Amino acid sequence: QVLLVESGGGLVQAGGSLSLSCAASGHTFSSATIGWFRQAPGDQRELVATITSRGGTNYAASVKGRFTISRDNAKNTVYLQTNNLQPEDTAVYYCASTLLWSDSEKEYDYWGQGTKVTVSS
After folding, report:
1. What CA–CA distance (Å, rounded) separates 50 from 58?
2. Beta bridge partners of 82
3. How confident is the model at residue 37 (pLDDT cuts 50, 70, 90)?
């Protein structure tokens, strides 16, 4: 049983920062690509960032330069540092895992329950 647990969400003012974490258990974490996705109310879920088993990263254009994804395989944890948050970043943020190198959410097999980020103007 693969389990992903997100944490670190909350309420922050525009321009602020949050550090999100995704703790994984139950699979070979070091071999997995981990993705962060988000879903705002009324919107479809969208890619935020991914990190491969080798540390390769990819970001959505809307967050590039503001968000940083990283991983600590010794702790089975992936982080998403979010800086200069804006109201449009308000969403539930999910982490997910796949054994493929993919940015498509359809390829992700396991999902966390999400952590809510709210950015006030």
Report:
1. 5
2. 18, 67
3. very high
